[in-house]
Each structure stands twice: as C-alpha cells, then as structure tokens.
Write a structure and sequence with these properties.
The chain is mainly alpha-helical. 88% of the residues lie in helices and 0% in strands.
Length: 60
C-alpha cells in the first residue's frame, strides 16, 4: 500500500513541476504549429497518392 502512495505522490509532484513550467502558446506560435502540421499532413498525403498512382500504373 505504501508503494502505491509513493508512486502517486511522485507523479503528483512531477505533474505540478510540469504545470509550473508550461505556458499557453501565443497566437503566432499556435498558427505556426498549425501550418507546419498541415504541411506535414499534405506532404504525407501527396506521397501516398503518388505511390498509389505509381502502383496502379505498374501493376495494371
């Protein structure tokens, strides 16, 4: 029982430490992250599309 309490206490202290360090992103940071994420999704989608077209051309 004591081990469980020690783990919970340690987790709560670590969580408190992280919450004190973090902050809400600014609008500029949020927009930049959204743009980079969207670009990454588009690149992966385009790559998948090109591979699918290539597969259809080669094997049909």
């Amino acid at each position: 029982m004591a081990e469980w309490w020690t783990k919970l206490s340690s987790f709560m202290l670590q969580t408190k430490r992280v919450m004190q360090v973090t902050r809400k992103p600014t609008a500029f940071e949020y927009k930049t992250i959204a743009k980079i994420t969207g670009l990454g999704i588009a690149v992966i989608g385009a790559l998948g599309f090109v591979l699918q077209i290539g597969k259809q051309l080669l094997f049909s």
